[in-house]
Every structure is written in structure tokens, then in C-alpha cells.
Fold these 3 entries.
Entry 1:
Amino acid sequence: MSTRTVLHEADVSRALTRIAHEILESNRGAENLVLLGIPTRGVTLAHRLARLIEEIAQTSVAVGALDVTLFRDDLAKHPTRSPHPTEIPDGGIDGKTVVLVDDVLFSGRSIRAALDAIQSIGRPAVVRLAILVDRGHRELPIRPDFIGKNIPSARTERVNVRLLENDGAEEVTIGE
Amino acid sequence: MRHLLDTRTLAKADALRILDIAEDMSDTQSREVKKLPTLRGKTVVNLFFEDSTRTRISFEAAAKRLSADVINFAAKGSSVSKGESLKDTAQTLEAIGADAVVIRHPGSGAPQTLATSGWISAGVVNAGDGTHEHPTQALLDAFTIRKRRFGAESRGRDLAGLRIVIVGDVLHSRVARSNVWLLTTLGAEVTLVAPPTLVPQNVSLWPVRVVYDLDEALAEGPDAVMMLRIQLERMNAAYFPTEREYSRRWGLDARRVAGLPDGSIVMHPGPMNRGLEISSEAADSHRSTVLEQVTNGVSVRMAVLYLLLAGERDDERGGDL
């Protein structure tokens, strides 16, 4: 079957700019904000969002990476995954507004694992979820707060996010 | 990874993967909550046919930090002292539902036997067998050397070009053997220093240089000096004249430590015989990594248990690591 591109480079950029505004709006500014990306592409997106928010609000935003591998409940169903480094910005997450950032939201299991991972690091005041692509098929009661694009998909289809920093190209495709 | 039996056959990529995952494990140990849910529901059996408090509690801590259940099986005072064979013990553990067996045994090759016999389906970790190998000790030593040298930039790095001196009773030391294989696999140059009576006969087949004079080896300014424990319980065959003589010629004292270049470290697997192979000044100096080695041991063993137990079983897939 064919693979089609659902988001081009300009679409991704527009979606991220809108999410940056939405985060600032819901947080009433950039204060106490910590963006945590979920490796690997979520970290890239978190850094991009931080840059956009800094441009808009003219203030610096804490950004880091949160690896969820060791907290997953499906490890035994796959070949052993190697964890990625977790980087928590100076200042930690206690009492902060943490925005989790990931590329695709599917079953919701990564996010559940991320919530557990956050618990082992500290106690944020609020945790929000920003997602570039929501493709549906949730298996847990988890919903995103900021969505780049809803892309209805069949469960068997592959949604593939490629970013310049990670893949040398920028697009979101859907296909078999 | 199905088992960890030795470092001799451990490929460089696999060794680096263990060390890199140990970095991630180490990071989690500085968090508010150190316990991870990763191996919930898995059972790790520590099967120890030799006394070893340090290695056993290190494996126990590693398994517990990953939420595995731990059963300690010490041979003394158990069915083994009543004459049970390794096979029967193994099958008992299998029946209990062990997912991994960490074994220490006085017989070289016992872990290999356990892993290949078909008696159990659990993953096997060699925690020291006879005078053969002690792979997790070598891995934690390599991790410690890398961490001291490269700090936060350690991930993905090997030990190319580093010069490491291993001093002491090489003949009886499984720690020395595992380190020789692993450190050379990672690109380090290894020099052994020992009394001629404590050098194994087949050492010419090892990828190392042998020197009999400690001061000569230290004069070259090695990056790490690893002192081996003189195993007094094995010293009944008069390998050297007196302890004082050994200490004078092959012991690491304050004078020898002071002559080391900046940045070189002093290592010891513990437990130390202070005043014999290592002086208190050396053991407590800022160069000493003795306690870091203990801390790193937990992270490295967490990485090994993770690789053995977390993923889909390799034999169900036909791959390795």
C-alpha cells in the first residue's frame, strides 16, 4: 500500500508555533515552565518548543529529556531496548508546570510510563502533555492538552515522524 | 543477552552496551526514588557456593532496585552441604521459578555448566568461578576507569590507549583474568606485575605484558593501578618469603602513590588487606576508587540483570543481546 505525507515541513513548524502559544496561554506566561521531551524525537520537539516560547515570551525556558524505558510495562514484548539519558534541568521539577513532549500519541503507554518516571524524580504542580501527532487508538485514559494534528489512522498503519535534527528530513507520513 | 559467563568471549559492542546502560542505571540512583519498576515479577536467585558478602549484597541491591524478587541461596547450611548435586539444586531453583541465577562457585566452569546443561531455563550470571572469571567485577572496573577519565562524556567511549597496571596474585585471580580480557577488548594496554611464582604458566598467550618490578611499571605513569587482594587462604604454598617482603616489593605504599602522575587512579576490588598489598595512605588517597567501585558495581549489575531479564527472551527470537 502507499505511504502518504500528512504533514510537510511548514505544517510541522506552524503546529509547533501554535502549541508554543497555547502553552503560554494556558500557563499564563513562561514562569515555572519545564519542558521534558521523551526520547528520541520528543526531545528534539521539546527543544524547538522551548526556543519558540523563548522568542515569544522573551524569557528562558527550562528544557530536558525524560527517558521512560525503565518504566514501560511492555518490555518483555520486544527485544531489549537500550535506555536513553534523562536530563532534568537545574531547578528540578518540584512545584513546576511540566509539559511532556512526544512526537506521536498512540496507545498512551509511553505517557503512563512517563508519569511514573516523573514521580521518581519529584512532584510537579501540574503535568501537561504536548503531542505533534495524535493518531488515536488509546489503551489508557490519557488525553493530550496540546495537539499538533489529529491524524485518524488504522491500528495497523504506521505513522512515521521524521525531523531534520534526527533524520535529515522533515515530514509526517502514514502508510502500511 | 541470554547469560553473562565471561568477558573473554564478550564482544566489544556488547561490553559497551552494558557500560552505557550502567550509566543510565547510575543516573537513576541519584534520584529521589531509587527503585525502578523494571523487573517487577521477575525472580533472581543468588546461588553462592563460596562466601562472598560484597558481591552478593551488590547483586541483591541491584535486583531490588529494579523491583525483582531476590532469593539468597547460600550453600553452607543448605541441602548442598547434605550432598545435593549442582543438577538437583538447579532443578529445584527452576521449579521455584527463577528467571535468573547469579552463581558463585569454587569450581571453574560451574556457571557454564549451569547455563548449557539444559537443567534450567533461567539466565545465568557468573559471579566468580574458581580461578576462571568474575565478569561483573571487570565490567565495574572498566566503568569506573571510564567514568573517572571521561565523566559525563563517558557514554559510547572505549578505553583505547589507556594504560592499566594489574598488580599481585595473578595466578589465583579471576578478577585479573576477567579484567585482562575486557580491558584489552576495550582497547586498553594491560601490564601485569607479580612475583614470578604468582604468574600463570600460560600468560604468554594473554594479550598483556608481564613485569616483575612494580617500580619499573609505575615509572611509566599508568592511567590506573589495580591492586589484587593477596588471598591469604591460598598462600600456604610459600609463593613469597614473608608478607613483609611482599609488601615491600609489590605493595602500593604512600611513596609509590605519590610518584604517580596526576589523574591516575588506584583501584582495589576489596576486601583489602591494608598494610599488605595496599597501604592505608594509598587506600584512602584521593586517587583511590575503592568506594566508587562498590557504588558502580550496583549500577553495572543492574545493567546486566536488565539485559538478561527485561526484554523478550533471546531464545524465543534467535538473536543475541
Entry 2:
Amino acid sequence: MSTLSSPALEAARSTGTTPLRLVRAEIMKIRTTSTWWLFLIGFIVFTALALTSNGFSHHFQLYPQQDVSDRAQALAQAAQARTPAGVAAIAASMMTSGQFLGVLFVMLLGSLVVTNEFAYQTATATFLAVPRRTAVVMAKLTAAACFGALFWLVATVLDGVVTPFFLHSQHVSTPLTGWTVLRSVLLNLLAFVLWAVFGLGLGTLIRSQVGSIIAGFAVYLGGFAAMELLFHAFYYFYRAGWVLGGPVIAPSVAANVMITPGQAFPHAPPQWAGLAIMVGYALVLTAGGIVLTLRRDVP
Amino acid sequence: MVVLLAALVLGGLAWLAWRKAGHNTSALAADVPLRPLGRPSGGRSIPAGQLPGGRIVASGLTKRYRDVKAVDSLSFVVEPGRVTGFLGPNGAGKTTTLRMLLGLAEPTAGTATVGGVRYADLDEPVRRVGAVLESGAAHKGRSGRDHLRVLCLEAGLPLARADEVLRLTGLTAAGDRAFGGYSLGMRQRLAVAAALLGDPQVLILDEPGNGLDPEGIRWMRDLLRTLAARGRTILVSSHQLAEMELLADDLIIIADGRLAAMGPLASVVDSMARGGRTLVRTPEPEKLTAALGRDAVVTPGEAGELYVTGVDAAAIGDAAQQAGLAIHQLTTERPDLEAAFLELTTGKAAIR
């Protein structure tokens, strides 16, 4: 049966399974379904909304309304916002517009990279092709991080187009390549990548698609409130300043601390602590996910 | 503290990876040498049994889920160049066994190897073993071609191979359509296409006939027979017994997780021949019945024929000759695969 012969196999030298090919395969998996661009469209819409709302709030920061309750204080704040440092901070805020919901999208996409395989039972085919399961998880991690970076790039381009017009319209100016702005944009990249990895780790731990999405929402939106409540209650019994910094163990608070130069909130731990905690979560979740993936049978 | 924890976990991971690597070397020491799949075998036929490492060996394979032993000390050998049918009632442990063979489920005890190597330790698994599993599935929004191309990337195969296997399985026209719109038969063909990607010397198929129309079943049978004739190892699970009788050279029958019978199809069926009966036509049925003796159980048929069990055709012939009786017909009715299968498995899986 001549139909069984394979010119393709005979022509090509076997490359074997390489880490790069595995990452390409994972990126192809994301690329060949509609999820990612639906996410991207939603993400662009939300980024545009965030830009608009940020723009308005910075406008009123620079030009307080006539009927604002404490006009004297508002004018003092406006004067401070007009200093070079103040304008740079506004520019940095505009240039990271869309982060709040953006990282949520990226986290969900990260968890889908894993949970899709179980929801659509493609895990079997994947682990048949690559029995070395750790390599698969690492490839997924890299792919998720790449998509995190891609979303960051899209947001940054969008922000980068709008921000100069906004600054011009407000009659203030600052170089967007200044360190304050650049640092915020780079920390923003870190946030996108770490949340993507966080989501991936969540997906490896909770294979159920619905389960990991709910857990993702709960951690991202609920974790902050729960930790605030817990540590403020604790502070009621034990009045030490560092207790109020405790909520940093919630990932969304840690991420906020990580991206905020200076203090993110009163008694907040230093920036590097936020970074360490986010990296720690990403590592622990992924490591736990790898161990579980190695131990559990493929369903 | 977090950094410390992370370091600990990383250390644990490194240890796990090292342990896995250790497994690898010990498995490679097994008797059958590991050679890359012979690509020159492409168009030529190879005598049965001559492909290296095509033999599947399960030894003491056991899988326990909490209290239930799904597979219990199962040992068997599947030879290259033959189609081996893997039969058992629902819940007998067929799928669990195949998943253990393929490294998807970890055996509680025992080992399963292909060419002496555990699947997970195979160098290029897709080039050595192809598998069609019941859960053979793709993302519903992904096209069949993209599904195969992803697998090509993962397995280190040229992407063009995806188009070849689409052609081979008659799916070229449907290749760019989303998997969600595929019929059951097309899904099964896509699963076969995926299994053939690496032109493997071993094919393991779990219920490949499910959802196929008669033409599809015939296509599948021809494909598997062709591959077996070229020296490939074919292990195919099914409970479509009539199809198995046409397809299989060897049989492995399991019931309740244990081996019930194993061997060439004819001998498995023949081993059940004691349950078979002999049809006898004679002008003097009463005299023959008397002549047969106590071991024979004789049931008269509607047209005057006799059905005899308990003694074989030779004994009936001898008895007739000694009694001076004419025999017009003496036919041993061989039990078919269905009879043998039911005899081997009935009642054993009743609990599940």
C-alpha cells in the first residue's frame, strides 16, 4: 500500500522534541483557537476604558472643579501634580492604563493554557507525544509568559499612542522615556508576565476549567478584601504598624506593592517584598503543579 | 521565607527529575536494543517480527483505585507482524491497561514495555508507538489540520506530515474545518491520523471501530491488516466480536482485570470446543442414542437429527460402526468467538 509511504518523514531529519518546539506547539495551541483574540479584543476595550477613566481623573487632579468641597487642598494637590515629578507620575499612570483588568485577562488565559487540555481531553494526545510532563508544563509556562508579554505590549502601544495627546491637551509635558515612566512600564511588564505564570500555576493545580477560573477571580478580586479584613481585625488586638502591611500576602496586594515605587499604602512593605511574594507564588504554584502533573494519571 | 520555600520546592523538583532520569537508564538496559525507527522501511514490506523493539510485554500489571483492582496481575505479550485483539466486557480493565502501556496511568504494580522500554522512557515515542484512545479528542474550535500540526511540533516531526496523514485517512477535505463540526467517524479518523503521524511500528487502538460506518470499519480493517503484514505490531481493543474474528490473528481476553485467555484466535476458540456439540444424522436415531453410552448427552432436533455433547465426533463414529449403524452426517459445530468469549467472561464482571 504505497499510500503509507511518507515523503515528509523521509525528507526531514528528525529533530526530536526540543524545548523550543514544545513552546512553539503551546503557542500554536493558543493561536489556533479563538479564545486568545476574544480575550485580546476584550482586553483592548477595557484598556481603552481605563485610559479614558484615568484621563478624566488626572484631568480633575490637574484642574480641580470649582465646586469641589475642599478647594484649597485640591489646588495645593494640583500644584504638586504640575511639578516635573508630579507630571511624570501622571504619565506613568497613563502609560500603565488597563493593568487592573489586563492582568486578570492574562491570568485567566494562563490557566486556560492548562485547563483547556483537560476540558477538551487533549491532554492525552499531548502527553503521548511528550511523556516528559515537566517539559510540557515548562513549555506552557513559557508560552503563557509570552502571551502575558504580548498583552502588555498591546496595552503599552495603546497607552503610548494616547498618553502624549493627553499630556498635550492638559498643557503639561514630560519625556515618556524618563526613568519614572520607563520604570512603571517595565514593572507593568513584570506584572503581566507574573500573573500569566500565576494563572498557569493555578491551572495545573486545579484542572477543572470552571474551578480554576473561579479560583482565579476569587484570588484576584477577593484575596485583597479578605486579607484587609483579616489583618485589620488582627491589628485591633495587636497594634503594630507592620500588621497593616500584612495584606501583602494576597497576590493582588503583592502585585500592587511590586509595581508601586515608594509606599503603595500606609505601612506597606517595600517594593522588593511585593516582587518576592509574586515570584514566590508563581514558583510555588508552578512547582506544585509540576509535582501534581507528574503524580496524577492523565484522565 | 518565600524564597526559601521556593528553593526547597525547586530542590524537590530537581530530585524528581533526577529520579526519572534514573528510571530511564535502568529501562534501557533491558534485553531489546533501542533503535530509531527504520525510515527506509517506508515503502517496502518487511517480514513479520523483524522490526526491532515492536514487541509489547506486560508483566504483572496491576492498577488499584482505592478498593477496586481495575487490573490485577495482568501479563501478556503482543508480537509484531500480527493483529492482536484485546477483548473483555465493559469495565474489564481494557482501557486502564492500555493507558498504563502508554504511560498515561501509573501502574500500582508491574511493568509494561514496548521493545523492552517503558513508554515514558522511549526516545521518540510518536515514532515508535501510535495510539488511538477512546478519548481521542481535539479542541472543538481547532481545525483537524492544526491539531495534527501541534502534535507534529511536539513530536519533532515535519509539519508537512500532518497533510500526509490527513490524506491517508481521507480527511484532506475536512482538514481545515473545526473539530467541533466533525462527525463521530471523522473524529475517529482524525485519531487514527494522529496515531500514524510518526509512522510508528506499534499501533495501540482502543475501540477504533466506534462510530465508524461499514465503509469506515472496512477501511480500518484493511489499514490494520496492511500494517500488520508489514511487520507492525497492532494491539486493538474491542468488544465487537464479529469484527475481531475478521481482523485478529491473536487474542487476549480479560475479565475482571485478569487474563482469561491468550493465544492465536483459532486456538482460543478451539480451547472452548468442549462446549461445542456434534450434529449427527442417522436413519436409526434411537439405536445410536443407546449405542453412545452414558457420557453422551443427546438432544433430538426437529428434523430427526441429533445434537450430541459430551463425546466428540470420533467417539460417535466409532460407536456407530460398532453398532453397525449408518451415519449420514457427522458435523462438529465449532463454537464461535462469541460463544468462547461469553464462556470466558460471563459472570466475572457482574459486579461492575
Entry 3:
Amino acid sequence: MLKHIKGCFIIHNFMNMKYIIYLAVLVSLFACKNENKQADNQHANNGIQEKELEVYDYNGLEKYLHIKDNKTYVVNFWATWCVPCVKELPYFEQLNTEYKDKNVEVILVSLDFPKQYDSKLKPFLEKHQVKSRVMALNDTDMNTWIPKVDENWSGAIPATIIYNKDKREFYEKSFTLEELKQEVQQFIN
Amino acid sequence: MKNVLKGLAVLAVVVISSAFTVNKLNGSGGYQVGDIAADFSLKNVDGKMVSLSDYKDAKGFILTFTCNTCPYAVAYEDRIIALDKMYASKGYPVIAIMPNNTDVKPGDNFEAMQRRAKDKGFTFPYLLDEGQKVYPQYGATKTPHMFVLQKTKKGNIVQYIGAIDDNYQDASAVKEKYVEKAVNALLDGKEVEPKTTRAIGCTIKV
């Protein structure tokens, strides 16, 4: 970006003759503007690519609830508007970091409204530097997929599944860090 | 030292209250379809107490546990108003109950409820579950959570529990209107189907 601005100034100075000055200013400003815009766009695109949000309907999400490898998966259903969810999110983040070498992976499934992905969800993830894998579930037919996630789920969030290839538990509740570690411990021992 | 003690006291309260939350959520209390729902006496936004027994001519009720602060509940406000307009005259009025602890959610306190009811032009009572005694009886776990009751000689029988319809995002994209279907079935003397549905909602704040 800085490069472009410099370049524009040079052009501007070079063409700094009395009788064409206004035209030159206009042309150079126009050129600068265009170049800058392009650069910004490029920058923005890269930014989005780095932080591309995975969005699925239930069919797309389902495989992440049934991965049969050697890991233990902690899948937390949450949303930025859900106060108890936001409160416990750091515990899931901590778990994801601390238990990585114990083959534990956290997946955060956001139920934010699609129209707020850009205005709320992405800024939230950025602000809190969320490191766990995040995916957004956009599937309005809740009555169909909620019981598929777990037969006992009333639909209230936060809700969490802890599973590996041998064992599976569902929790419609909030966790403290200690409770969360305690539960996960049962899966990795 | 004083601060340490204070901190410990706060911690104790948090631990105790979170333990209660766990118990409440895991408990399978509350009504099933077919149960007789208890009456209540709760304060409306106009300051008057409201009970189911006040409605002498009602054939039943569309009961909703809802609040000001949950985006899912807010997304359904207009549809709840529409339900009342459609069914109050047919004998199934809407009654809304706000179940959250207002210390935890000040945005749901009585004054905020009054403002919301006025701003949205609620045509039905919007009651505060003071002391949070009613929602656990019903087994509501979240907002919004609907209960359709049918008035009979035995009492108010729970005929439907669950969601309003199958699309919280877009009222115009709804394929199945569960509550309407349930009330229509009751008005026609038919069996309600489906009797229960599920939807995402905000946990009731204790």
C-alpha cells in the first residue's frame, strides 16, 4: 500500500507543470485511488481466506460428530449471544491447548444467525483469538437435527458432546474448567 | 483479608448456584404431553395478577416461556403476536411468561418487560415468573418454549410442547407451523400431531 502511494507522488511531481497541473492531479489521484483499492481488495481477500468460516447444514456437520480415529472430540454448541456459552468458551480453548498432546480436539459449533456471521461471529473470534476449530451450523429445521445430535437434547445451549471411537456423552449444561477436565479425563484414561 | 473473604463468599455462591443449574438441567422434571398443568398467579406488565382460571371462556391456552434478551425469543415475537390475534377469539389466547432470573438478566426485569410489551404492542399478558417457581413445574428449559393446553373438566391438559414452527430465521420460509397445527387439531377435536418438537433456545437463567 505504501509503495503505491509513493509511486503516485512521484508521478505527480514529474507531471507538475503549470499548464497541466490540474489535469495531472486529477489523473494521478484517480490512478492512486484505483491502485489502492485493488491493493485493499487483495488484502481483504487474503484476510478472509485466512479466517474462512466453515458453514454447514446438519448433513455437512454430522461427520464431525462421528469421527472414528484415535482422538477424543469435544464438540460444543454455542453462540456469541449466549452468555453462559461465552463464559465457558475460554475453558474449551484452554482444554484444546492443554490436552492437544493427549489427543483431544475441541470443535466449536456456532449457532449464530447467518446474518450476524460477519457483524458478530467473525469479530468475536478475532477479538478473543479463538484457536479451536470453529464451524457454523446453519440449518433451520431444528426439530429434525436436534434429536440427531442427541436424543436427550431439549435444544437449549450451551450443549456439549464428548466422544471418541469407544464412548460418547452428551451434556446440556454449562461447564467449569474443572468439570470439563474431569469429564474429558474419563475419555482419555 | 476482608477482600479475600468476600472473594471466597462469591466463589461459594457461584459453585453452589452452578451445582444447582446442573441438577435442574439434568432432572427430567416437568410436564409430558397428557399431564395436567398447574394454574399459577403471576404479575402481568400492567401490575395485575393473572391466572389461567381468570379465563372463563377459554377452550385452552397457548403458553409461551419467552424473554426480552434471547435472540431466538425476539425472532419469534411477531409470530407470537400473530398467534394471539388468530386464536384468542377462537378460545386459545396466548399467555407469555418470562422465566429468567432478573438479577442475572437485568434486560428481562419487570420494567424492561413493560417497555418491551408496550413497544411491541403485546395483545396478551406478559407475566413475570417471580421466584422462578412456574417454569420448573412446566419443565421449560429455554426461551422460547411453547406449551399448548386444552381446558377440560379434569383441568388444563398439556397437548403440545416445543417450537412454534420449523424456521426461526425466516417466518416466510416456514414449512410447518407446529403450534397452529396443534391448536387447529384441538379446535377440530382431532389428535395433535406432532405432540412435541425441539428448537434451539436460550437456557433459562437461574
